[in-house]
Write a structure and sequence with these properties.
The structure is a homodimer of 220-residue chains.
Chain A: H1 5-21, H2 27-33, H3 38-50, E1 54-56, E2 62-64, H4 66-89, H5 98-104, H6 110-119, E3 144-146, E4 155-161, H7 166-174, E5 182-189, E6 194-199, E7 203-207, H8 209-212, E8 215-218
Antiparallel strand pairs in A: 1-2, 3-8, 4-5, 4-8, 5-6, 6-7
Chain A binds a DNA duplex (30 and 30 nucleotides) through helix 3.
Chain lengths: 220, 220
Amino acid sequence: MDISHTEENYLKAIFKISERNGKPASTNAISNEMNTTAASVTDMVKRLSDKTLIHYERYRGVTLTGQGEQIATHLIRKHRLWEVFLVDKLHFSWDEVHEIAEQLEHIKSKRLVERLDEYLGFPKFDPHGDPIPDADGNFTIRKQALLSELKTGEQGPVVGVHDHTTAFLQYLDRMELVLGTTVKVLEYFEYDESMRVLINNEREQLLSKKVCQNLFVQKQ
Amino acid sequence: MDISHTEENYLKAIFKISERNGKPASTNAISNEMNTTAASVTDMVKRLSDKTLIHYERYRGVTLTGQGEQIATHLIRKHRLWEVFLVDKLHFSWDEVHEIAEQLEHIKSKRLVERLDEYLGFPKFDPHGDPIPDADGNFTIRKQALLSELKTGEQGPVVGVHDHTTAFLQYLDRMELVLGTTVKVLEYFEYDESMRVLINNEREQLLSKKVCQNLFVQKQ
DNA sequence: AAAAATTTTTAGATTAACTTAAAAATATGT
DNA sequence: ACATATTTTTAAGTTAATCTAAAAATTTTT
């Protein structure tokens, strides 16, 4: 059975939505994620159901079958491995790689993925700190919290971002808040929910509510 | 203007055919190269003509416009650069890379190609000895001849293959006739057009007519 | 130069992926 | 619980890319 580029993207969207909301993906949620119409989704969802890649009952939303989930996680695996390649080997910055990886993830070759993984040193996380699933679709789980959830005095290394937009990533670059940087909460301002933090035990910095709510820090 | 995966493949086919035959690509030649029907080609050729990527007059064959040629050579550039990547960095063998590169060549990102080129050390030839065009579509030209065209006593390094099939490439691997190997013609047998050659000034080898007609050797 | 063979184009259909607009089903508010 | 709002599906149609079969144009043969 072969599966189109488009079908793959639908499966990935369904995976993301279900993971995010912890429940079946609605037609509207999918159309929104895919920048298409609800009618197109209904159409596609029938086809994916015929191929037993999803469970679908009209008006009840969509979940992935084992097969469908396997394809979705494999796409994510490829996407994130390619992102590592682009950053580590070709020296792209972390805000430039998403769109290219969006194309590269559709390249079909089992051996290519295996060799790329090996070449990159079997990385477990991509340049944004997102976990790279293994060949069976298992993600490494890490104890993490948003910086905004830490209490005064708590600290940890920055391990990921919640917001993946170029704007945020470039902001972090300018602040020299790369992955691995240690952040310690010195003071919390209830007024605007901002924080004064100590970065790498060296310099102090004021971070806005929005920034704190989008930075993942490793726990304990 | 955007151009589909399929349209790109047509342009590449037209480029190859015109280059091979030194005249406009016929509908049949294209349908043959693309494994499709003449009717499909006529259809597509109209669309490419509307986009001013080719010159087309019915019953008279097809040539590429400047724009079309630019796209075709850029595809070849990407294809061959990716082949170098697969062989040099991921350690694929030269008979395994064509199909993967066939997919990778469609990835759209100017910066990616530039960075890949740099990462690979600006190679001028791919793993099969085919020239890699530069960003302007110019190919490095090399003085070469088929081994079968050499006279007794002449010699040169192997620089390319005419036949790109897996069977031939694997045969060369088994014979340890990789690119760079020096071959000297010791004797020519008129009977079956085979040759006795000296390889790397070390060992003698008998090569069949077919092999000699598919190996490129650097001249003078 | 006419007949035969080949090549190319047109005509008519199909499929995947998409759209808009209307109808149907489900969910929500009072 | 019923009217209203929202979500989802169906219906009908479009476009790119393909196909088969038949017609038309070109080339080759004699």
